[in-house]
Design a protein that fits this description.
The protein is an all-alpha fold. It folds into 3 domains: about 35 residues, no CATH class; about 100 residues, no CATH class; about 70 residues, no CATH class. It holds the Pfam family MRP-S25.
């Protein structure tokens, strides 16, 4: 199959058409892409380049697979996050504020001082960044750094829970009322749905029982009625018809 060079001449053909004066009274309309293509022309080479690879291909592969597909971008923090949230899945349920004012919040963090950072609540991201700092600066292994940061995280999280529990007890002691917790509200909604389901299940059971009993009661009656059903043969033939050999009038 030869090279397709016709698309490359679209711009030149359009430029000639705009300069044409065959019909003076007819104005040629400039396409929206004409000026863009004039300022940023496409590449002359039609050869598709291969994406550079950052790791060696699989030597067991006999055919190149995904030769032109860009490779996945992986960072060291990705594996650290996967390990932490696999061990602590409920940390994902905690709400987080990901809004940044200038996008430079990372410059205000000094992970050499621990997990507590200014204007940043304690979360799994603190564990990841602290572990990464220990691996790069203290030259600790991944498992050793993870264990150190994890125990520090447990200690701080426990202190937060104790602080919130004490504050709640003090507020209730002074007469504060907080209403039902999220767990109690969820259990209440679940109980309500369960009661509605019991009512629906009871009605369905009654319908099935009534249908089954009606089938049993009418089954014998219909069978007996079919067996003893009499055929209407009409009035009996008279003696005159019998003497003349007439056929009786049968009505079925």
């Amino acid at each position: 199959m030869g090279r397709q060079i016709r698309p490359a001449g679209v711009f030149d053909a359009t430029a000639l058409r705009l300069k044409s004066t065959i019909f003076p009274k007819h104005s040629n309309v400039e396409p929206p892409w004409f000026r863009v293509m004039n300022s940023i022309p496409p590449a002359e080479s039609v050869v598709r380049t291969i994406t550079p690879r950052h790791h060696e291909p699989d030597p067991r592969a006999t055919k190149p697979k995904d030769l032109y597909r860009p490779q996945n971008i992986r960072y060291l923090e990705d594996s650290l996050r996967a390990t932490f949230f696999k061990d602590h899945p409920w940390e994902l349920a905690r709400p987080r504020v990901i809004l940044e004012l200038d996008g430079k919040d990372y410059q205000y963090c000094d992970w050499s001082k621990g997990l507590r950072q200014p204007e940043m609540p304690l979360s799994g991201e603190c564990v990841v960044q602290r572990q990464l700092w220990l691996m790069q600066n203290e030259k600790l292994s991944k498992r050793k750094a993870y264990d150190l940061v994890r125990w520090e995280f447990y200690r701080l999280r426990q202190a937060e829970e104790i602080e919130s529990r004490v504050a709640l007890e003090e507020a209730r002691y002074t007469g504060a009322y907080f209403g039902k917790s999220k767990l109690n509200v969820g259990m209440m909604l679940e109980d309500r749905e369960y009661e509605n389901w019991k009512i629906w299940a009871g009605k369905q059971t009654e319908k099935l029982a009534a249908r089954a009993s009606s089938d049993i009661e009418t089954y014998d009656v219909e069978e007996v009625g079919d067996e003893f059903e009499e055929t209407d043969l009409g009035p009996a033939p008279s003696e005159t018809e019998l003497q003349h050999g007439g056929k009786p009038n049968l009505r079925i």
